[in-house]
Amino acid sequence: MERWCASLVERLYERSLQVPDVTEKRRLQNAIAALKQNQLTLVQGFASELTKAIAEDTRPGLLKKSDGATRSFSSMSFGELELMGDQQVQQAVDSARLQQTVALACEAGLSGFSARLSTVQGFKVVKSDRNPLRPEIVSQALLRLLQSLPVGSDARTLWLIHGAQPMGDELQSLYVLLDDLLAGQGVALAAYGVLASPESHREKSGRSAPTAAVPAETGRESVLTLDHLRHLLAGNYDGYFKGRSLAADHALEPSVYPDFAHTLPAALDVLAELDIKRPPTTSAKATGLAAPQPLAQLREHLKTGAKSLGQSLAVEVVRLMIEQMTQDRRLLLAVRQVIAETEPAFLRLGLTDPRFFSDKSHPARRLLDVITSASLAYASENAAGFSGFMENLRAVAALLTEEHASDARHFAALLEDFEHKQASYNREARESQNRAVQALLQAEQRNLLAEKIAAEIRGRADFVPGNRIITNFLTGPWAQVMAKERLLGEHGGLGASKAVFSLTLGDVLWSLNLAQIASHRKRFLKVVPDMLASLREGLLSIDYPLADSRPFFDELMKTHQAALRGTPQAHEDLSRGHHHLEETFAAGDLAGMTQPWLAPSEAQHSGFMDDWVAQSQSSFESTQLQLHEDADPIPAAPPAADASPALQLGDWVELLVDMQWLRAQLTWVSPYNTLYMFTSKGGRQHSMTSGVLQQLLVMQLVKVISQQGVLEGALDGVARTAMRNSLEGSGS
Length: 732
Fold this sequence. Notes:
Number of strands: 5
């Protein structure tokens, strides 16, 4: 930190000698003075701030969310901009600029250090994001420290602008030093995992690729900056943009700001004059669609004819948004083509209705969101139901080409009609899903109570844990029986009957006490028949397979026979003879305590997959070559267990079922996060425990397709473009 401060002072001083402007020279000199005044605080506080940043990054289970002070380029969100003030926007730009410059300066040294550190951390492949000393963490620590100092934002911004490169140089030296240190200790380099590109295989098969939205490389858009976009989101057309000139590339003189709708007739004339007939288009690249020439002309005409910067920016934001969506490979090509054809309608809306940008519930935004979300259900154009979906989608697109399709009411009508048609297809599926949810809710509630009852059984004074087979039965299936009985009692389902199955537990435990049996033989002979009948009745009440309970009844009978013969020692010998059987049950003891159990009827209603891990792995191994015969081999190892993505409701995955990959959406998570349910096309349910889901994610038998909506990702891409322009100094 001392070297960084010295280097920064030198750079600021050299810059002050070069600039001719007196005001700028004074700003630089003030920044130097402020730095010297706070240098001791910087030197003493940086280590503490870095330690705090590392601790936050490595804390288990922490939801890492960048704040405005430590904003990274990739974390910029369209929705957050509206809530940011001018100072926060400037902080976001400063933060992104610092991280970008620092990362580039130390990239060479970081690659080697991260590769060796990943080996030390136990990874077979490089996990750069697990490096606690990566540039992002160091930059965050520096930013927080600088913002805690009592200096003006002007000086702080100059420090960040001129201090980013020196910080990158310092980190480069540090990474090289640490890399050499690890190499000297014999630490090998971890491999860099190279994933096969799926584009060619996906295009040939007509399947949508399981990748997130790929930001469009549109070059530098000179108009749109982060600050401009924020005011556009706030709907501040008449305030912030009033009287401002357009970008230089439009070569328009500033004019008196008219009402916003002033240019609408001209825009509609252009749309009418331009007969935009779109023949079937093919992608110019594998990543997206090329805009038809008339549409490009329309955009330029609207931008050059705009009477305010706000109108020009509205056109630009719509263009970027549609471009991002048409280049999102999660959507099938046919869907992307239709979205591209609807751009003129959204251009008209952007010119007349600022709420489109700021209101998430705007009918036009909801329409785009509903369409793209529904389309993610189809993995290929041959998927069942896709032709009907496309018929509805093309009907919407046709109505959007009408000239009056430029207000919220028209989009609201289209949204209602589209949702109604989709709902008619999915009505049966919703009913099936409701039945599945009810079954899973019942199962989770019973399982949670069964865990408590199992603990109560172990804590009883008359409980004897000597026989593991009997113990597993009483704390497993019988705890489930008692749990259901209690739940029925709480809801009045038992009527006037007593909790007979809870009483049966006492009889079972009494019958296992050999000394009691010897003293009360008559009672024993009277109790056992009713007890056995009650045990079987209880198991039937939860639909428990009687065949699975046979080991318990066999062991119970042997215990009773040994007691009646009065030969406890013989019983002990018999138990030792069944040691192998007990160990088999013991292996699943802990799993049974923590993993929910579903009755066959509950499993059938919810598509529950208890032993799906073993079955899917076998199916996956036998079909992997067939399913991916066109793909290159993937040398990268499966991700570590703790690297599995955290799924949220609405996320889309591909999962292997019956030797086939199915596209499914996470539609339900139980209140206590013990059960997850996915729904594939046709309303088919696939439910599993959280433990099974994590294993399948690690084994890549469940592959995450989308964890962010297509529209949300496209708008975030617009925000990143604005951030990029701000970093390149295209405006404020």
